[in-house]
Every structure is written in structure tokens, then in C-alpha cells.
Amino acid sequence: MGDVGSFAALQMTQDGKTNPDWSNSKWTASFSMSSSACLTAFHQVHVTEQATRALFDAALLPAAAALWNKPLAQLLGKTVWQGGQLTAPTIAGLPPISLQALAAQIYGAGLPKGAMVHGLYQGEWVRASYVINGNKTLMPIDGLALQNAQAEQAWQVITRQDVIPPNPNAHLYGRSLFAPSGALVAVEIDQQTGIPKVTQVQLWVDAGKVLQPDLLLGQAQGGVAMGIGYALLENLPLEAGGAGNGRWNLDQYHVALACDMPSVLNIMPLPTQDTTAKGIAEAVLCPIAPAIANAIAHATGKRFNSLPITAAQIVGVTK
């Protein structure tokens, strides 16, 4: 992450970064943008999709056309991956082609074996046209290079055309991507001991197009656990004798355990028309601690302004 040296194959430049020069087919506004967790998945998923799209158009589809003995133009938009094989179900008489057969054709015919792309997002993806196998295609990337199957290191830069740059003020947008989340939390407080217990959590998250539901649920469950620890358990004195002395461990720094988790935890991805994913990362953690603090304030009538909120503090207020 953050190593942009390999982009040398794209021959791109940032010269005159403060004076955008999109008329230069090799210019881009940024080699490496923010890699914070909420944004990284958005960027990585997008460029991966575009790289695979470019490789499919430049190599796999021409290889299939040769094996099927069909004109390339006849196959555009007609192919589907089924069971790991490339098929064209709407064209009669074409048998499925295995990935191994496609690879053999690609290497035998000297077609591209790799694609490298660069994407830039400033309020929207910078778009440009690229000519691949004689077809001019508009793609949401600002750099493309292909590597021939019979060449070890050589990359061929595909010159971008008709670039559609971002809004001139887009550099002011900064971190314009996020995955909003919200939480409703129920907390019970023992009247004798003052110990707070999170009993129910309802979490909503806008994750865009969900690619791996189990990973989303796991990340959200972890965010709830971290939020409970942050709000109620994790006391970290900053003065002498705190964790900075190097002798602390989990016997003193109390993180949330299974017994601290709510008995009811509902996680609801919001419905979306987005065609791409968003990185939820720490976004699912952010509303948990404030929601817990709000619930305790509602129960006690006292707003606590420091974390963690301990039983001793609550007892002191409710007596």
C-alpha cells in the first residue's frame, strides 16, 4: 500500500499538480490518494473491476472469438461466465471454453496477459476513451497499459483520448466518500451496582453493493464490540502508571468479551442502487459509543463527558 513505483509502466506524470493539465494524455492529479479504510475498498474494487474489464476486452474475448471461429464484433455483450467457463448462451452451437483453453490461446497468439490501470476519483471517476482491438471504449479510468503474453516485462501504454476531467473545484472535495451508519442502542443499568449492560443494538449501514455479506456482518459485529469497549470498559490512564510503562496487559485494559455483547444484535445494510461497494471499515464503530452514552444519559438524567463511563460514576450520580 502506498508503493506507486510500479505505475512507472503507465508513464504518467504529476508535473504541474497545482495547474491541472488534462490535455496531456499522461497527466494525472494524484498517483496515490487516501488509503483510509472507509475509502480504500471503494478505490480498490473499482480499479480491479476496470483492469479485469480491460484484460477481458483485450485478450479473453479475442481468444474466445478465435476458438469459436466467430467475428469479435458478434460476441460483444453476448458472453457469460458459467461454472468457470466462458459461454455465449444466445449464440447457437458455441461450446463452453475453459479458462485453461483461453490462456493457451492467449499465450499462443501473443495477446495481452496483464492489464494495469490507474483511477482517479474527485467527486466522480475521471473518464477517458481507449482503443482496444479497434474498438473505442469509454472507461472510468485515467491510465491503461497492457502486457503482452510473450513479453516478460514490456508494457504497452494505451493512449487515453477524449478525457472527461473532474469538476475544476473537485480538488476541494477531499474525502468525499463515506459509508454512513447509525445505531439504536438499549442499555440496562443495575440499580444496586450501577453496572451498565448493553442489551440490544440495531445497526444500519450504507455499504453500497454488498459483495461479501458474511464479511460485512463480521466487521459490524466487531465494530459493536469495539464500541462497547470504548464506551464502558477500556480505561487507559495517561499519567505515570498507565499503559505507557510497558507492563500493562488485558488483565488491566479490559476489552469487550462475549458476555459484554448484547443478546440482540441486528445489522441491516440499507437498500441501494449503487453498482459498487463501499468500504465500511471503522464506519460501523463510530455511532456505537455515542449511542451508548445517549442511552445512559437518558436513563440517569446525567450527561457523562469522558469515557469509559463506569459503574462508580453512575452510582455517584444516581444516589
> Biggest sheet, open or closed, and with what strands and sense?
3 strands, antiparallel
Ends: how far apart? 53 Å
Category from helices, strands and their pairing: alpha+beta
* Shape type: elongated
Average pLDDT, to the nearest integer? Answer: 88
Number of E-type strands: 12
Residue fraction in strands:
15-25%
Count of runs of 4 or more consecutive helical residues: 6
Q: Report the order of strands and helices.
A: HHEEEHEEEEEEEEHEHH
Low-confidence stretches: none
Give, in spatial order, the strands making up the sheet with the most strands.
Answer: 1-2-3
- Domains, number: 2
- Rg is 27 Å
Secondary structure: helix percent: 25-40%
Protein topology:
Layout: H1 37-68, H2 72-75, E1 80-82, E2 85-87, E3 97-98, H3 99-109, E4 112-118, E5 127-132, E6 135-139, E7 143-148, E8 155-157, E9 161-164, E10 181-189, E11 196-205, H4 213-233, E12 264-269, H5 288-300, H6 311-318
Parallel strand pairs: 11-12
Antiparallel strand pairs: 1-2, 2-3, 4-7, 5-6, 5-9, 7-8, 10-11
Task: Summarize the model shown.
Helices cover 28% and strands 20% of the residues. The chain has 319 residues and is an alpha+beta fold.
Explained architecture:
The structure is a single chain. The protein has two domains: 168 residues, no CATH class; 138 residues, Aldehyde oxidase/xanthine dehydrogenase, molybdopterin binding domain (Aldehyde Oxidoreductase, domain 4), CATH 3.30.365. It contains six helices and twelve strands. A three-stranded antiparallel β-sheet has the order 1-2-3. α1 packs across α3 and α4 crosses α5. The chain is elongated and about 80 Å long. The model has no long low-confidence stretch (mean pLDDT 88). By secondary structure, the chain is α+β, with helices and mostly antiparallel strands.
